[in-house]
């Protein structure tokens, strides 16, 4: 018998060693330049003037207030959005009704709308020149240039996040399990909690994590509706802008480092959840851009 | 229609419609209503003013440039991640999501720091006479950053699900790597690429936070449309803000429609008789 | 083109898929690789194609060592199990693909003419403009064959060619493939786990188990003279009866049959349902009928021997048998294999 060489594979397309190495090399260099470098420079700039300056920025009352406000916005917007996402996914995947496709398209709209446009749109609802503005003003209720406006704008930009993770998965899982549970006499809530939820919990968490990251980082929409009042309506991203334009670059980067850290944790959580199978059921390109195809 | 077996339709659909109506539809309708209340002449004057036109031009051209770059880079990145094994592959794969996870304002100041003439990259490029910060090139780079994941993430799953037998069949019929890529793999990726492209382009058109720090924001040259809306608001010119915002909104809707149509066309071969 | 495999070995991770296989396929022959799943038959086919590389041994095409020639230069036509038709190309474009990417440049008109000729050969005239999603499974199968034949391959390789089709379509396509083979005379190797398919179609059947060839020969040879209990059982229904060999004869509770070349001792007697018969008098295996199954082409009887063994045999439909009858199962012929 001739010599035995184990594991030899015929080359697939693009497997020539030279091409392969060149392509990996180019891609890695570009990733380092375009994705890694911006992350690294945040740390470098934040500590450019040493640890003491960094600490002073973080503990400054304005920064602390911005952090509080950002957390508050997330604490309200994320759970409300999650409840909506679950309701939408249940309605869309467990029932057939007219206009389902249209509803799906509407839910996805915030993805394609500029955050600035979203902010402006809210002005024309709750602002003085808007539909409800004069009425609200007469009763002394402040929505715009106040915390409610910030939360509403955050809800707009993140409206599809939870729903779009749940819908494809629940669509793929079908209705059999829920119908079986109901036929055995389980109530609707009971069916959802003990049959549906265990099967979609990772996808739900995945949507929640991404939604949270977006709420905490939203800038455009929030900057229109917040009024940018220092120490009052500044979220962390707005606070960064303020410091940056005040020529306090180190302070801006110090504040940015908090958000960058959240981003890194978001990605770690995302990878961990993907290992549990979340974020997977979207292999059909049509379903990614247009879940209506699958749902109808 | 099948009778509903499961409970909860009125509640879940009610919550959904109420939320979508209040959070998404009402504000957008209010915006369109406001823009429409201007009357055609005023509307046209505002949206076709020289400054607005200049903002569309720089926004669209930069978005096209950024999307084109991301088409090649995103495809190469997805290909490398799915087809090759190398140390650090998982880390690179995770890093692709950074532009989505990193708040745009943070991306904006860090890209500016990198590309300013005294920054890491800016100083090197400056030696070659290339200015990035405060030029349209800076706008493009900010757009590239924020929209990069779209193409990678739409192409990746399709590459993963591609039946290896198709490639083997093409090889057994004598096709070279390039021919197989061009005639078999690329057409099968096309619907995903189109989806990624349009998502990426739409994101570029609407991007604000990452751009305003690096753009220079000079009217007529480096002022993007989103910023012009913002400036009109600060000037309390709400009508103009509404009009220009409605242009961005209608463009986004048009993009959605075109994308759906192109995808349906690209996938028409899957339809049965 | 004659193909020769010389001591070929292939291991995946730790699974030894093919262990030292040597095999010759004569030019123009139609050979079936038959075996259960995991027997290495598909791996052998893919190594002949160049879709896998052998870890050891050599594969010769004629006199040329083809072991390391990549698939695109090997000149084989491969029909994949699920056809692997390009979904975005029409039937005609699929068939033309190999000619378009060939190093031999062809005029468009020449390609079109060849495509038309192949569509006629596989009886798909008029379907050239359809997409694969728009035709039936059997039609896809024929498109896949036409596409493989379009490049004038030296060898045609088919992986479970009829596996995904329903029974009627299979039978038709089998006959049709046999006709095409007679017409073109191309050396053909195909993989199947269906013994009927292998026996119907092939000039020669190669039976595999656990990466080894256990027997090869014409359908007649493997059917009439199985060399092992595995082949006997794999090729079709068989009754297994405990027996004892003494002085050139095998004895199984009341029945006896001549055997040669077996040492005295315990053995197993294998008999097809058609090799047994039913009689009211001995000698034979005393048994009682438990059930009678009527089928369009005959009557199958299930019986239990006094020793407790379950037996199945066929009788003419005219025979009056019913459950509960007692009698004797007689042996027309049988194969006896020593145990161990």
Task: Please provide a brief summary of the model.
Chain A has helices at 17-46, 50-59, 61-94, 100-112, 115-126, 133-138, 147-158, 160-173, 176-183, 188-217, 220-226, 236-245, 249-275, 285-289, 292-295.
Task: Provide structural commentary.
The complex is a heterotrimer of chains A (296), B (273) and C (340). By secondary structure, chain A is an all-alpha fold. Chain A has helices at residues 17-46, 50-59, 61-94, 100-112, 115-126, 133-138, 147-158, 160-173, 176-183, 188-217, 220-226, 236-245, 249-275, 285-289, 292-295. In chain A, helix 3 packs parallel to helix 8 and helix 12 runs antiparallel to helix 13. Chain A is flat, with a radius of gyration of 24 Å. The model of chain A is unreliable at 283-296 (pLDDT under 50). Chain B has 273 residues and is mainly alpha-helical. Chain B contains 13 helices and no strands. The longest helix of chain B is centred in the N-terminal third of the chain and has 34 residues, at 50-83. Chain C folds into 2 domains: 3-231, Rossmann fold (3-Layer(aba) Sandwich); 237-338, OB fold (Dihydrolipoamide Acetyltransferase, E2P), CATH 2.40.50. Chain C has 340 residues and is an alpha+beta fold. Chain C starts with a strand and ends with a strand. The mean pLDDT of chain C is 92. Chain C contains 8 helices and 20 strands. In chain C, strand 11 (239-246) and strand 12 form a beta hairpin. In chain C, the strands form 4 sheets. A 6-stranded mixed beta sheet of chain C has the order 6-7-8-3-9-10, sandwiched between helices. In chain C, strands 13-12-11-14-20 form a 5-stranded antiparallel beta sheet. Chain C has a 5-stranded antiparallel beta sheet with strand order 15-19-16-17-18, with no helix packed on it. Classes of the chains: A mainly alpha (296), B mainly alpha (273), C alpha+beta (340). Chains in contact: A-B, A-C, B-C. Chain A binds chain C through residues 1-11, and chain C through 7, 9, 11, 20, 50-53, 55-58, 70-71. Chain B: It is a multi-pass membrane protein. Chain B: Belongs to the binding-protein-dependent transport system permease family. CysTW subfamily. Chain B: Residues 56-259 form the ABC transmembrane type-1 domain. Chain B: One of its GO terms (molecular function) is ABC-type sulfate transporter activity. Chain B: This is Sulfate transport system permease protein CysT.
